[in-house]
UniProtKB/TrEMBL annotation:
Domain N-acetyltransferase: 1-150
InterPro entries assigned to the protein according to its UniProt record, in alphabetical order: AcTrfase_RimI/Ard1, Acyl_CoA_acyltransferase, GNAT_dom, YpeA/RimI_acetyltransf
CDD domains: NAT_SF
Protein name, entry field: Ribosomal-protein-alanine acetyltransferase
Keywords assigned by UniProt, alphabetized: Acyltransferase, Cytoplasm, Transferase
Homology family: Belongs to the acetyltransferase family. RimI subfamily.
Length: 156
């Protein structure tokens, strides 16, 4: 079952997301507990969370401004990877935001994270640019990807 951030206490959710990120990323969590907490408390952000037996095993964080969405975090516990959890989270967010009339969804991904890029491409994301040295420890470029949730109205 996928739950939203409102199903959790902010501080506890921030701690659990940070812990999960520490496990999920070979480079460690890209954010501190404090950064997660600050993000969770923003009204324009949402988190979709997969919890099994009272333990968070995956999450997707995103921000919406007007009709644009940016995925800020997507992580799954290493022991739960390759089970379709990231895809379920991504599809759920895309479905919700399409229903909410969002126009496009952007995200950044490490250039070396080919598995994630394949997942995004399979969900109709396309590479639209790069950010030089966007990531640190180790320094690495980010691939910017985007998908359109609706087409622009045709002008007559």
């Amino acid at each position: 079952m996928i739950e939203e951030k409102t199903a959790f206490k902010d501080e506890q959710l921030a701690y659990e997301l940070w812990q999960l990120s520490e496990d999920a990323f070979s480079t460690g969590s890209p954010w501190t507990k404090e950064q997660f907490l600050t993000d969770i408390q923003q009204p324009q952000t949402n988190y979709l969370v997969v919890r099994e037996e009272n333990k968070i095993i995956g999450f997707l964080g995103y921000t919406r401004v007007l009709d644009e969405v940016e995925v800020t975090n997507l992580a799954v516990l290493t022991t739960e990877q390759q089970k379709g959890i990231a895809r379920r989270l991504l599809q759920e967010m895309l479905q919700r935001e399409k229903a909410n009339q969002a126009y496009s969804v952007f995200l950044e991904v490490r250039q070396s994270n080919v598995a994630a890029q394949h997942l995004y491409e399979s969900e109709k994301f396309r590479q639209v640019g790069k950010r030089k040295a966007y990531y640190h420890e180790p320094d690495e470029d980010a691939v910017i990807m985007c998908t359109k949730l609706k087409t622009e109205a045709m002008k007559h």
